[in-house]
Specification:
Blueprint: E1 3-9, E2 12-21, E3 27-31, H1 37-40, E4 44-47, H2 55-75, H3 101-107, E5 113-121, E6 124-129, E7 132-138, E8 141-142, H4 151-162, E9 166-174, E10 180-187, E11 194-196, H5 197-203, E12 208-209, H6 219-234, H7 248-252
Parallel strand pairs: 7-10
Antiparallel strand pairs: 1-2, 2-3, 3-4, 5-6, 5-9, 6-7, 8-12, 9-10, 10-11
Length: about 260
Amino acid sequence: MPLLLWETHCGNARRVGEFAIQRNLRATIVLHHGLPANFRRSHLFQVSHTPSDTSEFAMRHIFKLFFKGFLEGLNQQSPRHSSPEKVIDYTSPVEAKAPSGYAAKALIEGFPKAKVMFVIDGDTVIVTKGWDKIKIRLDSIDCPEDGQHWGDTATYGLKKLVNGRNVHLEVHGIDCHGRTLATIYVQSASGEEWINVNERMVTLGHAWVMRRFYDHLPKDRQGKLNRLEHWARSKKVGLWRTQNPIPPWQWRNGS
């Protein structure tokens, strides 16, 4: 009678193969479809062993070898990813205060690396880090919402900067919605410098500075954000060239 091989995931089990020892001591593993590519290439594995006084020990050893290879193959499968709505929020220990702008530049390549997979709106993205999907809220800025004037333009502006790109994340914490707050850094087209995406969104006129929520930034970084917003306003860049732009926190409250 064959031994059945099962795979379990999130409390569910499915039969994925079987192991049989026949009378002639021929060991057979049959693997079902839906397994890793290296197993799909050959669904039948056979090993013969000449009968002897140690046949039972030998067959146990063969079984162990097969089962070990089977488990290693399963471990090579790509994990089942959740949809963008079901994300794993990630954060690493951070200091109470972010480093200065000068210090942050030297630390960028040491910040966690991730890849931007999906841009939700002008200040929120989904990134992958390893096999995890993480919802990132750009720290200290606020962009027009979906359905608000300039919301689509801000979203497109962020897509042009980071969509599909490898980035580094300076993590600041978790917000009240469970999103990871971070400053995102992406390399310039020339690859010669790192761009602070949060600051660039302000420079392009796609975002307001959230002064109520940037106390964790040192004074030099607060001052730079304020100067960039003032410059964008004075030059009527982006949303500032529209008539009476409404801050998103007021728009959300219906005021």
